[in-house]
Amino acid sequence: MVVPKLTMADMKMTLALGILFFKFFIISGSPPSPAISYSNLEYSIETTITPVFSTLGKQFRVVTNDTVVLPCEVVNAGNYVLAWKKGIAILTAGGTKVTPDKRIRLVDGYNLEIRDIQTKDAGNYVCHIATMEPREITHTVEILVPPRMSYGKEPREVDVKKGTSTTLDCKAEGNPVPKITWTRVNNILPSGEKSIESPTLSIELANRHHAGLYKCTASNGVGTPASSEINVKVLFPPEIELERAWVHSGEGYEAQLVCIVDAQPAAEVIWYKETLKLDTTERRIMETRGRRHTLVIRKVLFTDFGNYSCVAENSMGKTRQYLELSGRPNPAIFKSHPNGRSKDSYNISWAVNSYTSIEEFKLLFRKVPVHNDNVNYQYQHSKRPTRRQDNDTHGSHLNNQWARSDIWNDVVVPNSPTEQFTQQMSYLIRGLEPGTQYEAKVMAKNRFGWNQMSESFKFQTNSGASTNTKPAPSRLVFKL
C-alpha cells in the first residue's frame, strides 16, 4: 500500500480540523459519531445565528521595525472557529497560534499583532470564519522602508580627465521608491543650479572648477533621508598664475617671487634663474603653502637681478611661467588733481617707489587728440632747458609745440639723491590752452635703468581767468 506524502499545508489544515473536532467534543460532551459527516457538522453549526464581521478589510502602511495590529472582530461568533492565514500559510486556528514566528500573536480578542515588522511581512492577511460558506476579511500590509544607499557611507572617488565628460550615478533602495536629489558641498552644480532631481548627474567637458564633493540624497517620506558623497577629481596639467610677473627690489633687501600652481595630481615645482636650476642656500629659500610656491631671496645681490621661471610638472603635463627680479623703479603714480586751477598752466605731481635713488624723470605730455584710437604714440624733444638757472620754477613754455596734438612733448626733470623708498616730484607746465584736456606719462631712471612707462594721466586746464598768484617752486617731496 502506498502512503501519500503530506505537504506542510496538508499538515497545517489537518491540525486546524483536529482543533475544530476538539472544540465540538468540548461543547457536546461526547465525540462526534462516525456517522456524522463533516457537512452535517457544519450544517448543525450553521443552524445557529450567523456570525458577521464588525471590521472591514483595509490597507496598512507600516514602517519597518514598527508594530501593526490587524483587527478581526466578529459579532455572534458563538462557537465558530476563527483562523488567520497569509497565502496558504495558517497563522492561527481558534486560540492556537500555528506559526512558529515569535513576532506574531493574538491580542484583544482575535486581532493579529505583528511586531518588528520586516519587508517579508508584506502581503494579504485573511481572517477566516469556519462557516458552511466560509466568511473572511482581507487586510493588505505594505511595508514602508526608509531610503538606504546602495553604497557605503565613505565618499566614493571619481577621476575624470580635463576636457572629458562623466556621469555620476546614485542608487538607493526603499519603499516607496526614493527620489534622488543632487547638490554640491559649498558650491553650485556645473549647470549653475543649486540642486537637481535625477538618478544621474552629468559633467560635460570637465575642468578644474568642476572638482569637489558632490552629494546625492535619497528621500521617500519615510524615516530620515539617506545620502552619499562622491569626490570628483579632475585630472589636468599644471596651471600657473603669477602674483607679479615683474618684482622690484634693491641690493641688501629681500625679494619674493610667487607662483600660484593648480594641478591634479599635485605638481612638483622647480625654480630656475635663466637656465640654471636653483637649490636652497642660506640666502635662497623655497617655500610651499598649498597652491602658493615662493622663492625667497634674502639680502639681494646685484647678481640676483634677472629673469627667473617656475616649472610645474605632474603626470598630466608640464607648465612654465617667467618672472623678472629687477632693481629698476616701479611705475610712477600721479598724485595731482585732474582739474587744474589755472587756464594756461598746470602743476603736475607724481610718486615713484624705488629702493635705489632716482636719478632723473622724463615727463611726456600732449593735448588729448580728438580721435586718438589709431594714433601712433610718438614724442619729440622740446628745445628747452631741463632746469632753469634762475629762481623761477621748473617749467616748460610750449610756444608753438602744439601744431600737432598727437605728438608727445617731453621734459627731463633731474632729481636729487635720496635713500627714501617713495620719491615724489612736481612740475609746472606752462603755456597751456584754457579749458583744454591734456594727458601725461612719466618714466623714472635709477642706476639700474629706466622703469616701465606709467599709465596715461588726463588733466584739464581751467576755462576761467588766469590767477595772478605766482606758482610755488617745484620741489622734491619725500614720503616715508
From TrEMBL:
The entry's keywords: Immunoglobulin domain, Repeat
Which region ranges are annotated with the description Disordered?
Answer: 460-480
Q: Which residues form the Fibronectin type-III domain?
A: 364-464
Q: Which PROSITE patterns match?
A: FN3, IG_LIKE
Q: Which GO terms describe its molecular function?
A: axon guidance receptor activity
Q: Which GO terms describe its cellular component?
A: axon; neuronal cell body; plasma membrane
Polar residues: bias regions: 460-471
CDD domains xrefs: FN3, Ig
Q: Name one GO biological process term.
A: synapse organization
What InterPro entries does the database record attribute to this sequence?
Cell_Adh-Cytoskel_Orgn, FN3_dom, FN3_sf, Ig-like_dom, Ig-like_dom_sf, Ig-like_fold, Ig_I-set, Ig_sub
**One Pfam family from the record:** I-set
* Record domain Ig-like: where: 51-138, 147-231, 238-326
Name of this protein = Protein amalgam
